[in-house]
């Protein structure tokens, strides 16, 4: 840890791609079985203005999902409804290696979740038994500002009553990492549990096994 860096009193984790993995291959196979190209539903849900509206709370989960269904069936027909049902039912899988990393961090520091989630996020966390793994949960759909906007990071720092220099941020998307770095938060783009643990060690955490 550099001399000018404070000990990290708070570590902010992203959810998707860090703590939660998506079983994309399984969902893609279902889409193909219904005659859709892999990733079709995801592209409608998050590759359009619908995604931004859902992750900033302009649309609640049900309204968002209904809009996705309407658009996909408009283009591909009502016979693809089964693929949409499977996509909606999916809650992903917990990355057990990263869950252990999170628990090691939590033994030394406040652990927060910051997710560009929909209004269904807290339900997903409960289903995955993740709710109690975090000291604080920040869902952008509840705050009204989504990553990578620097304002969401300023909001989180204020709520955690900490400073950028005392805070670490981990996300799998470079754009979000840059958003946090823009206000001085030490940030790491997650690729795997090993490199993320090395970043945390380098920031001053001991990462003792628990």
From TrEMBL:
Name of the protein described by the UniProt record: Unannotated protein
User: Pfam families per the record?
Assistant: Hydrolase
**From which source organism is this entry?**
freshwater metagenome
């Amino acid at each position: 840890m550099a001399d000018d860096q404070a000990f990290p009193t708070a570590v902010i984790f992203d959810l998707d791609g860090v703590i939660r993995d998506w079983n994309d291959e399984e969902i893609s196979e279902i889409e193909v079985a219904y005659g859709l190209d892999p990733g079709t539903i995801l592209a409608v849900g998050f590759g359009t203005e619908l995604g931004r509206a859902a992750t900033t709370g302009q649309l609640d989960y049900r309204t968002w999902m209904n809009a996705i269904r309407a658009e996909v069936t408009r283009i591909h027909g009502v016979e693809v409804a089964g693929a949409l049902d499977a996509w909606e039912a999916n809650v992903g899988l917990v990355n057990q290696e990263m869950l252990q990393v999170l628990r090691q961090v939590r033994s030394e520091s406040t652990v927060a979740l910051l997710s560009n989630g929909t209004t269904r996020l807290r339900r997903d966390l409960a289903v995955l038994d993740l709710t109690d793994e975090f000291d604080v949960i920040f869902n952008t759909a509840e705050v009204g500002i989504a990553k990578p906007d620097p304002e969401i990071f300023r909001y989180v720092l204020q709520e955690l009553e900490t400073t950028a220099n005392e805070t670490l941020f981990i996300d799998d998307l470079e754009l979000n990492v840059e958003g946090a770095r823009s206000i001085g938060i030490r940030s790491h783009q997650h690729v795997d549990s090993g490199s993320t643990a090395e970043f945390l060690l380098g920031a001053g955490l001991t990462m003792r096994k628990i």
